[in-house]
Amino acid sequence: MRSSVPAYELVAPKNIESALETLAREPGVWKPFAGGTDLMVLLEAGKLPHRKFLSISKIPELRRIEVAEDFVAIGALVTYTEIQRNEILQREFPLLCRAASETGSIATQNRGTIGGNIGNASPAADSPPALAAYDAELGLVSSRGTRRLRYGEFHTGYKRTQMRDDDLITCVHLRRTHAGGKHYYRKVGTRRAQAISKVCFAGTARLEGGRLTDVRIALGSVAPTVLRAVGTEQILHGEKISPALLQKAQKMLGSEISPIDDMRSTAVYRRRIAQNLLAEFFEVMTA
Amino acid sequence: MPGRVIGKSVPRKEGREKVTGRAKYVDDLKFAGMLYGTTVRSPVARGKILVIHFAPGIPWDEFTIVTAKDIPAKNCITLLIDDQPCLADGFVNHPEEPVVLLAHPDKYLLEEARRAVRIEIEQLPAVFTIDDSLARKQIIWGADNIFKSFQVEKGDVDSAWSSADRIIEGEYGTGAQEQLYIEPQGMIAWANADEGVTVWGSLQCPYYVHKALTPLFGLPKDRIRVIQAETGGGFGGKEEYPSMIAAHAALLAWKSGKYVKIIYDRAEDMVATTKRHPSRTKHRTALTSGGKLLAMDIDFTIDGGAYETLSPVVLSRGTIHAAGPYSCPNVRIRSRAVATNAPPHGAFRGFGAPQSVFALERHLDRVAEAVGLAPDELRRRNFIHQGETIAVGQVMHEKIDMDGLMNRAFELSGYYEKRRRFAAENSGRMIRKGIGFASFFHGAGFTGSGEEYLASEVAAEATREGRVRVMAASTEMGQGTNTIFSQIVGDALGIDQEQIEIVQPDTANVPNSGPTVASRTSMIVGKLVESAALEIKQKLLDGGFLRRGYDAREFAAACKQYVEKGGPLKSFAKYEHPRDLHWDDVRYQGDAYGAYAWAVYVAEVSVDMRTAEARVVDFVAVQEVGKVINPRLAAGQIEGGVAQGIGMALYENVVWQEGRMVNGQMTNYIMPTSVDVPPIRVYFEEIPYERGPAGAKGIGELPLDGTAPAIANAIAHATGANVTRVPLTPEMLSETLEGVHA
Amino acid sequence: MPDAAKKIHVRCIVNGKSLALEAFPMARLLDVLREEAGLTGTKEGCGEGECGACCVELDGALVNSCLVPALQADGATIRTIEGVAMGEELHAVQQSFIEHGGAQCGICTPGMVLAAVNLLARKPNATETDVREGLAGNLCRCTGYTKILESVLSVCRGMERHS
């Protein structure tokens, strides 16, 4: 344990209004603390410079999954376990459920939240590629009001987001337009369970008359943020699947991503595997 | 009444305490007024200590602060030699080398204080690789950076090359491996000039710690007391390192006058303590046209880190095992342990043999391929038989049946059929399968005259209630010491398990039965336990307190009578080295070990060609280990060892930067989870060893020798990749595959 | 450096008993249990939520107690290893671990037993795959998992027989 625990303040606001009021009154002083599965690890490693946290884990408005006819809104404090247990999410957003099942361990999934994961903004996180592939939107709230952001624009750089000091993420908003498509998710980690990803691929598309449409491909761990491979999508859109198309798309994908060498893996490996996963995505599409 | 419990899967003696959470490990213990202790360590690999700065803002007067000058007598952690300081004095020679110790009652303030100490060091050029060490770019240890070297000669290797039909060369490497016991290192100490020094801790060898603390404090031996707490795994990682942390806790206790507890967090444990020695092996092998080994020239180097510690002994075992269980008339093994500026490497299950056996078994598969023989055929033509000699000249008097073990392992794993089928079906597939094996042996006990030097002793006592207490320094750390000893005594005396107590290892109460290492606990110490128990029986019989054919109740009554009439009923047993074992330490020739375990392991792998990820999908471990005292415990040892071998082969990669491990977290240093290992299938053959208790031999380290090469051979079969290094990460395999299939 | 936080009251039910503990709000539940409540059965193996040695049940869910801040345990119902047996009568999982050799050094055992008990409460008919996946967050260095799986699956088979 590499931190001095008495130096940290953690207080639970009575309700969401009180939380927002505190955040507005002292901007930048308080940061939200959800399930703690990221922040406590940093605390124990002596890598948590920020000292004042608002424990929002019990705010009821942020803990629901709202299902409407044309959208699902997952509250920011919904846990990975709760995501996996939701039938609508399992049926219509399997990439997200797969991601949730591969995040950490069961014990982590019981505490980790989707909002906490998004706010932590690690490029190696497992859910963001699924969210990006599904064109998710984020609901944010502050004392100044609510706003909606496209998740694809939320991450602006390595661990930098569009969140303002007085914001809370309220929900992840998913439009129920992905029925009829095929979904492919693969996380390549350091081992088969409880692993940090080296490459993470989330893709969905439709085959109509033998041609690919509505192609969405997002990757994790190959750029400073989660990445929508729009160049690759454009190459694929409207085309018939063929070895030549795959080669062309792999080349484009290789140029769109910017993987690095780190203690877990290498840039060369990550690029090669990302391209190989695209081939597997093709197989899933034609199966 | 032989055969009552030996050979049966008697439940673990301390099982109930462990499943209820009642077993007390060192961090579960606390004492009145106890302080917490911590260590301030060198941030660089090598240099001269200029100043130690204590930043303002910390109430330093509340702290106990210890540096080298506070050491009462000799600043060293005694092991084979005295080169390793307890606290760095003037110079540092590896990252994380301990320099300053702090203690305080508030563990949070203690951590702040640790970060507020800055050690200013004028850096010196450092050495980080075996090559650089051998090249002597810098002399960082002794005269030439070499801790120890050996040269083994059998026959005449040099003249054999000219008559060889084929000569095949290869170079192989193994990386560092972290023992990763789930309970980190920890010690509690109480020390003052009047009472002496007492330590409680997580450890394998109480007398090693005792031996290290004695010259440090300059106290007589009976003023140093070492007590083992329940220990959460060791695997060699708690063989020698506990002496260091015990010394630190004791120094803080000495200076503060209070109990001091030091518990490492995982990050500190990973980066600062010992690991398996990295190795490099070069093979040059000559064969006859008939596929028989004609000459083996082996060059074996291990990286010892900054101080000698146990490197000569690791080198010794690796050297003796380097040519394997094969008959070869001409063998040369040149080996050396070299210094680098990394934290000293140390004992880890297998102790040098996993390194040299990996190279050998991988090399022999490549040799077979080069001469057009099936890998098993090459082994069969060269397996050593009873009466033949191994590389160091030991005549194998015991019965050996490597062919039989191989047949059984192959039948259980479906080896031949899978070898053919996978090769036929793999082409063009994205998931390729492979099956491979390793055949090997492992000598049990200390090498050569080591056991004679240890002169182990065990004591036993029967109380007036008829309970029998066993006193040995052998520690329980999960491998089953308590249960095995209890079974041995149970059969020797014909009494129930509940009547037997294995006394907690405490140097004040138990004699020195040697360290709990080298696969010696059942075979060597177990035999002494048996002797001590039998002596108690003999005393009762001789005195007429017992008649032959007695039952457990009569035994208890006899003990009562004996004790009431004549005082304590105690016995001692001391190791006697077999007179027919001779070892020459200078020429490194002779009877290296009293007994060997023999094995053939088969690994089946599945390789995803898209991601270069290999998984072990089936594993068969067949071994001949003498009498199996407790089948369930023995199988548990092999299963756990195979899992560690799977980690060594595929996952456990230490990432180094300037002598420091940079992935020192469980998130980034990867050991297998329950979904990363297959069911591990274990089978025993038993050829009793007459000098072991009930015929038992040692088994604890055996699985680490054969697992990684079996997996490497399987991956080579699956993919055609020439695997020469472990850990074989997907990144490395991916690069190799690009070369194969380009 | 001045402390910023004051200790808070943490009122929770631990193994069926109401406890009123004091701790810094960011203190790890692991330390609160071990030090304030004196329940040393829960162990620290890594301090990063990777090894599972610190597993406890929090409001019925398996969690790594090294990652739960004390503030968030206020009002919770917690079960530790000490609460698995009913007095001196062992839980079927504990008994099975003894019979099948599921514990070697024992340091991972408290967390492993809790994870197994929690798994079987959710999946009484767990298959080998279910058990492997269910215990993937609990690292064991001694056993290679084989006898842990045998221990847990034996309980499943026993439950089948009794149902």
Which fold name corresponds to the CATH topology of the largest domain in chain C?
A: Ubiquitin-like (UB roll)
Instruction: Indicate the overall shape of chain B.
Output: globular
The chain-level mean pLDDT of chain C equals: 95
* Portion in beta strands of chain C: 15-25%
Folded structure, characterized:
The complex is a heterotrimer of chains A (287), B (742) and C (163). By secondary structure, chain A is an alpha+beta fold. Chain A has 3 domains: 51 residues, Uridine Diphospho-n-acetylenolpyruvylglucosamine Reductase, domain 2 (2-Layer Sandwich); 116 residues, Uridine Diphospho-n-acetylenolpyruvylglucosamine Reductase, domain 3 (2-Layer Sandwich), CATH 3.30.465; 105 residues, CO dehydrogenase flavoprotein, C-terminal domain (Enolase-like, domain 1, 2-Layer Sandwich). In chain A, 35% of the residues lie in helices and 26% in strands. Chain A has 12 helices and 14 strands. Chain A is globular and about 60 Å long. The mean pLDDT of chain A is 97. Chain B has 742 residues and is α+β, with helices and mostly antiparallel strands. Chain B has 19 helices and 28 strands. The termini of chain B are far apart. A 7-stranded mixed beta sheet of chain B has the order 3-5-1-12-9-10-11, sandwiched between helices. Chain B has a 6-stranded mixed beta sheet with strand order 7-15-14-13-8-28. A 4-stranded mixed beta sheet of chain B has the order 16-23-24-27, with helices on both faces. Chain C is of the alpha+beta class and 163 residues long. In chain C, a hairpin with a 2-residue loop joins strand 3 and strand 4. In chain C, helix 2 crosses helix 5. The termini of chain C are far apart. The interface between B and C is large, with 59 and 55 residues.
